[in-house]
């Protein structure tokens, strides 16, 4: 297994986990870009959003719902951003899909 986030799912690499269930894991980003910055990933290895299949629709919804629930728990009442970077142009660096959740600061739009 050559995937960093699969290793986090397996417990082979430590992470500061916020939440875990049978489908997803959420953990703090190692290089936070905001006071709140965590990632929600599926336990299933899916390399990029391009690889999301029809069968993954419920999983994708569960990731989004988990992001929303944890953002509230982390005190992001004033708002937050949930974003997924896809492939090179999207700025993806880890090829196991993940939803970034950033909050507790004013975020600029559009991103660079
Ligand atoms: P992306 O550029 O969208 O692929 O985002 C990858 C994110 O994973 C970056 O924000 C990294 O800081 C984060 N990251 C990389 N390695 C780790 C790790 N071991 N634990 C937590 N976050 C990580
Ligand atoms: Zn993986």
What does this structure look like?
The chain has three helices and five strands. By secondary structure, the chain is of the alpha+beta class. The longest helix is centred in the middle third of the chain and has 17 residues. Helix content is 25%, strand content 22%. Strands 1-2-3-5-4 form a five-stranded antiparallel sheet, with helices on one face. Bound molecules: adenosine monophosphate and zinc ion (ZN). Adenosine monophosphate binds next to loops. The site of zinc ion has 5 residues, from α1. This is Histidine triad nucleotide-binding protein.
Summarize the structure.
Residues 4-112 form the HIT domain. The protein has 112 residues and is an alpha+beta fold.
């Amino acid at each position: 297994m050559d995937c960093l986030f699969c290793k986090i799912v397996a417990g082979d690499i430590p992470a500061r986990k916020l939440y875990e269930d049978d489908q997803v894991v959420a953990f703090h980003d190692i290089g936070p870009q905001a006071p709140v910055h965590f990632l929600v990933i599926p336990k299933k290895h899916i390399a990029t959003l391009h690889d999301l299949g029809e069968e993954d629709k419920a999983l994708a919804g569960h990731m989004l719902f988990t992001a929303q629930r944890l953002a509230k728990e982390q005190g992001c009442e004033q708002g937050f951003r949930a974003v997924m970077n896809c492939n090179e142009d999207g700025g993806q660096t880890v090829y196991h899909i993940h939803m970034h959740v950033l909050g507790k600061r004013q975020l600029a739009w559009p991103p660079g």
